[in-house]
Amino acid sequence: MKRTATAHWEGTGKEGNGHLSTQSSVLNQTQYSSLSRFESGVGTNPEELIAAAHSGCFTMKLSFNLSGAGFVPTSIETTATVTLENGAIPSIDLECTAIVPGITAEKFQELALDAKANCPISKLLNTDIRLNAVLH
Fold it and tell me: Within this chain, do residues 62 and 33 fall inside the same structural domain, yes or no?
């Protein structure tokens, strides 16, 4: 399976702007710029998209892990915070809360740590990934 996305940019890095489109059309000429990346301008940015990809991938992997262990999650919510410092991403923090009937806290942590280590996006990223997983 292959997925594609396209970036188009015009102008300088600071004053220019561009747009992103994805194969699925979920992003369809979605605006991004230096302002949306480094300040608070309208549009998306690469770090926000990495956060979306990582939170989605981790959450789905955790759901697969839970069902594989015989548990059906009522809900799982994950927020990924990507830190950009000095032109690098030194860390990503995953904050996960879940409602999973019948599971022990220990089993939940085991499956969450496995999801952190083994979701495809975690495997792709070369950064410190920290996880705080809370079972409700």
Answer: no
- In what helix (H) or strand (E) does residue 21 lie, and over which residues does it extend? strand 17-22
Domain that holds residue 103: 46-135
How far, in Å, CA of 90 to CA of 127, rounded? 6
Q: What is the mean pLDDT of the chain?
A: 96
Local confidence band at 42 (pLDDT 50, 70, 90 cut-offs): confident
89 and 73 in one domain? yes
Q: Are residues 61 and 118 in the same domain?
A: yes
Helix (H, G, I), strand (E, B) or coil at 97: strand
- pLDDT tens digits, residue range 93-130? 999 999 999 999 999 999 999 999 999 999 999 899 99
Residue with tokens 């950009």: 84
Chain position carrying tokens 């548990």: 71
